[in-house]
Structure formats: structure tokens, C-alpha cells
Specification:
244 residues; mainly alpha; Methane Monooxygenase Hydroxylase, Chain G, domain 1; 8 helices; 0% strand
Amino acid sequence: MILICIQNGLILNLEILKKMALHIETELGKLKNIIIKIGDLAENQVAEAVKVLLSEPVTEGKEVKKTENKIDKLDVKIDEICQSIFALHQPVASDLRFIMSAMQISNEIERIGDLAISIIKKSKNIKDKHDLIVKFSIADIAKQVESITIKTNECFLTRNESTIGEIFILNNRIKNECDEAIHNIINEMKSNSKTVVSGTNLVIVLKHLERISEHCTNIAEYVYFMINAKIIKHEKFGSTKFED
């Protein structure tokens, strides 16, 4: 009788463990899908920001605002799922790394969306920007920032280390080109007072583009942590590992 009770107890415990494992697997799947969705939304925001900056046809302002609201709501949802997993389960090391990274990645993505909105607002107020954009190759920088956001979403989806390396390298290039463009725009404003207003706004936009690139690189670092259980910083890590 005692043995039967013990066996029944073990069977019950196994069933509970199976249900718990299934539940955490489901929650982790939800978490991954939401991050992919929020990443896609932020990628679209950046694309819209680049279009506004370069005076290309854009989506209506209402749609951009709706996307911003969706990103904010999904960011809250990610926090709720992570808190629920921590409260109800004891995730294993790999799952724990994913959850910790997911919370950080969500914050980075939200900042990318916010910066994209700021670029849209600032770009709409820049008059006579076309000449400066052409003269200082700002379109090339903007397109590279658009590219790094795409690579960042790809990086999270595939967890491919070579893509992480590409992001680090591209971020360094964007930073250097932004610094050079800002330096040249400041010199232009010194020599031509008519460009001061437009030039100042473009400098702010370039700073926002550079920060988007930095946020993308931070996400790549978190993905690297998920894969390898190691924390790296792109400034110290460098790109030599990926340039063989």
C-alpha cells in the first residue's frame, strides 16, 4: 500500500513537472515572438525616419503614431511575461540567459523606436536640407543605419555569430562617418551663416542615427550572451574576430 502511494506520488510529480516544462516552453515561445514583432515594428519606424530625412514618400503620421503605441504596449507585455516566468518557475541557465537578455533587448528596441520618431519630427522641420544631405553624404549614413536595424533583427532570429560581427563592424563605420559629417557640417555653418539652422538640426539627426546604431550593437551583445554565456563590449571586443 505504501509502495502504491509512493508510485502514485511520483507519477503525480512527473505530471506536474511536465506541465510546468510545457508552460515555460510556451511562455518562452511567446516571448521570442513578441521580440521579433517589436523588432520588426522598430525596423519599420527607422525606415520611415530615413524616408522623411531624405524627403521620400512616407506613411501617414497616424500610422507612425500607432506603431509607436504598439511598441510601447509590447514592451510592457515582455516585462509581464518575464516576471511571470521568474515568479512561477526556476528557469535553467540557457532559459535564464534568454529571459534576462529579452528584457534588455526590449528596452533597446523601444529606444530605437523613440529615436526614429525624434528623427521624423526633427527632419520635418529642417528647411533647405537637401544640399547639405548631398554634400556630406548623409543619405549613405542613413541607409547604413537602416541596414544595421535589419541585421539586428536577423541576428536575434538566427543567433548567427557572423551577423553579430557584421553589426559590430557596421556600427564602427557609422560612428566614424557620423563624426566626420558632424565635423564638416559645423565647419560649413562657420563659413556660411545661412546653413546654421538646418545644419544644427542635421547634427541632432546624425546623433540620433548614431545612437540607433549603438542600440542595435547593444542588442547584438545580448544575443552573443545568449549564445555563449559571455558578456562582451563591442568597444573592447573589436572586430578582429570576425574579419578572418
